[in-house]
Amino acid sequence: MMKRMFALFLALMILTALAIPASADDGLPAYAADYDWDRLAGSNITLNVYNWGEYVSVDDGEEDSFDTIAEFEALTGIKVNYTNFASNEELYAKLKNGGSSYDIIIPSDYMIARMINEGMLETLNMDNIPNIKHLDPSFLGREYDPNDRYSVAYMWGTVGIIYNTTLVDPEDDVETWDILWNEKYAGDILMFSNSRDAFGIALKKLGYSFNTTDEDELNAAAEALKEQKLLVQAYVMDEIFDKMGGGEAALAPYYAGDAVTMIAENPDLSFAVPKEGTNLYVDAMCIPKGAKNKEAAEMFINFMCEPKVGVYNCNYIGYSTPSAAVREYLDAEIVENPIAYPADEVLDKAEVYLALPDATTKHIDNLWTEVLGTTGSSPWMVPAMMVVCVGASAGINVWRGQKKRKNGE
Amino acid sequence: MNNLRSRLAATPYLAWMIIFMVVPLALIVVFAFTTTVPCDAEGNILTDEEAYLIQEEETLIWEEQGTPEEERVSAVSEKTIFTVQNILEVNKYMPTMLSSIWMALVATVICLLIGYPLAYMISRMHFVSQKMMLMLVMLPMWMNFLLRTYAWMTLLERNGLINRFLGLFGVGPFNMINTQGAVILGMIYNYLPFMILPLYSVMTKIENTTIEAAQDLGANRLTVMWRVVVPLSVPGINSGITAVFIPSVSTFIISRMLGGGTNMLIGDLIDLQFLGNAYNPNLGSAISLVLMVFILLCMSITNAFDMEDKEGGMLL
Amino acid sequence: MRKLTNRIYIGLVFLFLYIPIFVLIANSFNASKSRTVWTGFTFDWYVKLFHNETILGSLLNTLIIALVASVAATLLGTLAAIGIYNMKKVTRTIVMNISYLPIINPEIVTGVSLMLLFVAMKIELGYVTLILAHITFCVPYVILNVLPKLRQMDRNLYEAALDLGCTPTLAFRKVVIPEIMPGIMTGFLMSITYSIDDFVISYFTHGATSQTLPITIFSMTRRKVSPEVNALSAILFVVILAIMIIMNVSEMRKLPEDQRRRAAKAAKKGGRA
Fold first, then answer.
1. How does residue C8 score in pLDDT terms, banded at 50, 70 and 90?
2. Any idea what the CATH number is for the domain that residue A70 is in?
3. Which helix (DSSP H) or strand (DSSP E) does residue A285 occupy?
4. Chain C partners (3+ C-beta pairs within 8 A)
């Protein structure tokens, strides 16, 4: 059977090799001609790219689809091994554990700062990334990487509440984090499964800063999250696409860019940014320490900064671009969408996540485990367990007694 | 074959198991009882705040002097020390542990209740049908268990297939997904064959003549079941219980997919510390250690049962 | 009447076991990507499956790892079984207890502990670690299958071969191996099955480049499982069903006539009881 499988495989491989994506004329600028794209071709490099789920354009079978990874492979002759993580914290755990080597990672701002602090990132050779010139100056020299030595911004966005207009009472104010604590929607609320975003929302609801290091404030946030847990249907990350898309829940906080995608797929959905203020984040491309193919990785970053690639990626994933050049070529419809490109008043009230001191991060992680690990739903469970245990041991004893008596006979 | 050489044939295996099974478990113990703390150049342990202040100060000086990245060596380093803190901290997660054990117990009992009659019926069937039935029991296990669990999501969701079906009769919709019940259902579904197979293999050895003898001596159907079949199948019950309970109590995928992260199990707690959203391998190891000790305890209990009943079986 | 209730009961249990599988297979023919709405019949997903490099690549990884790990585990396990068979009782008990470790130890703990080991040994997570981990949890199954066959074997056969002038190696090859072959084969097949299906241990020991099929499926379950995976599992299901039927039929044929009659008689009696 194995042998036949392999034969089948070979046949398949040949088939796939034949299906080279054809790129259509789209009126977008061609790739930079003065950049030596194929200088690493033929040196048999495989680039390990570790990215968020749904964070580049892929071939979805539509007319004008663009497969970013295939396009890069065709242009440079470098093979890409593309895998996904679900949250910054998961990415951190995977890297911190050690043992696996990635060439490109795309963490968010606060995680980049933390990784820089812990010496987990390589400095970039900007000579290999001339396309950084396309970036809007406001995305250079930001707080997480003040000298732009470790990262090149990829996308940015805000956090808001995605809600299903058919399930949420129009009387209710969705422009507040409080609605995620509204008992009317018990069992209809989805919540972030990563600690930073979850605590961020609880802190903002209580009127504190995202970046507080005050233990009392964090403890209060944890209490709020425990209280909310009774109303939460599920803690999710990317699962949200499926659940909100299928009308499984009424309310969920998530990233603006993904809201654009979800609303396009399910018109019942809508997006609101709470008035207490929200988070403004930047996800940027970095190279982790110990990457085996640094130059190829820098080439990949440069490729991702190409206006054409940026336009396709933005169209596909719905996130907001930090690139001035890309913005120029985007459809007006997208640039004018207030979800992806909110008004200044929203941005003014938005707060950025900063890297927290180790002690605070540890504290949050502990509190988060506690929040998730507290099962408040069934207070009868412990007594029931006791009864079972007592019953079982009594049963065993009776059985033994009987056996003994029988033995005696 | 009674020479020294063949006895040594197990050496590579033994070496393998020591490296890849015993040493890793020892590592778990080591991790469970240690933690990393910041310390200064002399090796004195610092509190997190002290370390943070020193590092802040250092960075300021470096920035001022324009020290290049490569030459920046912090006075603060890390050190691994012995601690029982991790183990004590596991205490906080007692509710999660108890609820895991409770859910796994419920799943095991239901598996036994469903599996026992089925295994008995199969074992009394025509030889050819027995083979057929066994194949049918094992076949689902060949499908990837993630996909099967995912299919249950499709069935149980609020707009899922079951609710749609019930909706045709004007019943529902029911809230089934992301509940404890859904997680228990997932456990039963995934591990039921692990209960049926050992039960069957023990029961198929019970001769029909034994049962007939009991009947001839005047035992009714219930008595035959309780006094003959059940005692003879105790080894099967034992291994079935173990085979269902251990994976149920330590699963993290079933609870994540069908419980939505609101019904955490011990397995989820461990995953959370190693590859999840709250990185802390020391705490994760401590939880793993507690889980291991607990399972060892359970095993010794079922084993004790087994021994006793072998004697009992002889008495009958 | 009693027979009827039995049948209904068996039917219900199997319905429970097979409902998700029907859902899976049905979805592989569903024109829409939605899991719950049927919009029409299509073979598209089967065609697309053969163009999906991620799925096919991880399937290939899975098969390679399963094959290498099972062959290694079978060799290691068979040798070990022979060694254990010849051991004194005390040593045997100790070794067998170690062998049971991977079976009774919760998978997640095994996975996590192996990850700690590989990281401590500075082995990069990837093919190598996956194969090492898979061998570790497969070997005990080989031993547990070979050992009973050794016990059933008539020791005198081996002695006789030696008396007739065989060298120990030749006697081993000509007498012992054929006797325990069924056990070795079962152990090998079980290893392949466990290796292909393993998710938990692979999840903790895989690296950047070595996604196995269960791991790819896992990352899909976070967003949406593409129907192509359903198509793949439908194909696998049919293949396995066919193999199992063929195996069973050939086994039936091999069964001598009188044995079959005896089995039938026993079954008839069983039906009465």
1. very high
2. 3.40.190.10
3. strand A280-286
4. A, B
* Number of alpha carbons in the 13 Å side-chain half-sphere of residue A81: 18
The parent domain of residue B154 ranges over 90-315
Domain edge (last residue) among C225, C246, C262: C225
pLDDT at A359 over 90: no
Our CA-based measurement puts residue B113 at a distance from the nearest CA of chain A, in whole angstroms, of: 17
How far apart (Å, rounded) are the C-alpha atoms in residues B257 and B273? 18
The 10s digit of each residue's pLDDT in B135-169 is: 899 898 888 889 999 999 999 998 889 998 899 99
Size of chain C in residues: 273
Contact B1 C218 (CB under 8 A): no
Of B58, B89, B120, which one is at a domain's C-terminal end?
B89
Nearest to residue B23, comparing CAs of A344, A93, C120?
C120
Structural domain span for residue A316: 25-156+281-354
Q: How far is A360 from chain B (nearest CA, A)?
A: 9
Q: What is the pTM of this model?
A: 0.89
- Chain B neighbors of A192, CB-CB under 8 A: none
- With beta carbons less than 8 A apart as the criterion, state whether A376 and A232 touch: no
Same domain, A171 and A216: yes
ipTM confidence score:
0.89
Using a CB-CB cut-off of 8 Å, the residues of chain B touching C237 are: 139, 142-143
Task: Return the partners of chain A (3 or more C-beta pairs < 8 Å).
Answer: B, C
The CATH number that applies at residue B136 is 1.10.3720.10
Q: Which domain holds residue C261?
A: 1-51+226-273
Say if residue B31 is in the same domain as residue B160.
no
Q: What is the pLDDT of residue B195?
A: 95
Final residue belonging to a domain, choices B49, B69, B89 = B89
